[in-house]
Amino acid sequence: MHYLKLLPLLFFTILMTACNSNDDEMNLPISEGLQGTWALKEAKYFMSSKEYENGQFVYIFTPDKVIVNSTSDNTPLLPIGTYSYTYDKESNNFTIDGIKYGLRLEGLKMIIVEPGAERDAGGFFYFVKIK
Fold this sequence. Notes:
Elements: H1 7-18, H2 23-26, H3 30-34, E1 36-44, E2 49-51, E3 57-61, E4 65-70, E5 81-88, E6 93-96, E7 99-106, E8 109-113, E9 124-129
């Protein structure tokens, strides 16, 4: 009968060991993880959102530049062009051409948050890494 008390512990142990976590990918330095080609998948604003096809809006991050390419002139976030960016891991400051943005990078997914988004004035931009 006392074995029934161990069932929740056994269940929790199985649950925790069954989860797949790629720690190597998650612990990349932000500059290495950020570098590459990213496709904009979705833009969310206060009361609306829009999804995009892979390749419609592409952001290429090099060690110190971001290049925006598009099949459309109406690019969300940044117009077509080349921009400098910086990222300070200690302060979590991410800037593009001197403008501070929020950044969350998790493996092959990235979110860039426009200034003011926390006050419903900006947007959230969801990307997936394609190269």
